[in-house]
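INPUT
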Amino acid sequence: MAQTSITEDSIKAALTERLGASYVEVQDMSGGCGQSFTSLIVSPEFAGKNSLKRHRLVNAALKAEIAEIHAWSAKCQTPEEWEKERAATGGNDGPPLDGTADGKVTGVSQ
Amino acid sequence: MLARTVFSRQLVRPAARLAAIPTASPSFALSALQRRLLSDSTRQAIDKAVASAPVVLFMKGTPETPQCGFSRASIQVLGMQGVDPSKFAAFNVLEDPELRQGIKEYSDWPTIPQLYIDKEFVGGCDIIVSMHQSGELAKLLEEKKVLAVEEESVSAEGEKKE
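OUTPUT
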């Protein structure tokens, strides 16, 4: 598996710049099958867009990066939604880990 | 051309019946560039696959033996929702490199799994799971009439959504 120059920090920087994100959490969830990341992205650009459109916006902004890594997961919220959820959960709700085993991606490496 | 596998058994109980509420339908359009990248034969094969059942999942592995955690989570959600096995088809992208690459261009979506309902792209694992948690998926599946009906059970109507 070729290592890329993609890191939590480089993805965070890209999202902050390209999506005007006000808050980004990127978490490495690489398991045995290559580089994988999950993220919580807060951007005013998500306002008025449904979940699919938000993910498409993120996929487009990170097209080159996602093409190089093995797995990518994202949760996309507007600043208002994020504030509301933080107030409700006490700030414990980070990037999604559904489909991972204890935060690590498992599966085929091909 | 594309191998189709179906649920060999009903996975779990049907989801609670909910009133059909219209939801906004996501739509996608392919750019001219994407059309050029995807060969006509692959596009036609994927057209057929997408139309092969009301609920179609492109995944890694099979429903019985998913080969990736995200595909496994997606299959589990569809099972928990009570999707009718006769209205469901799964396509294993690991068996077909052309499908594996082609479906990403076809849907303009970079990852697997991918869910289609009534030939419309719904999303990948993140969207499937969040729609499951919010109740949107139950509404959509109910609206599309793709849930298994438990005819013999009298308790089905009284079930509450979890």
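end of record. Chain B touches chain A through 28 residues (CB under 8 Å).
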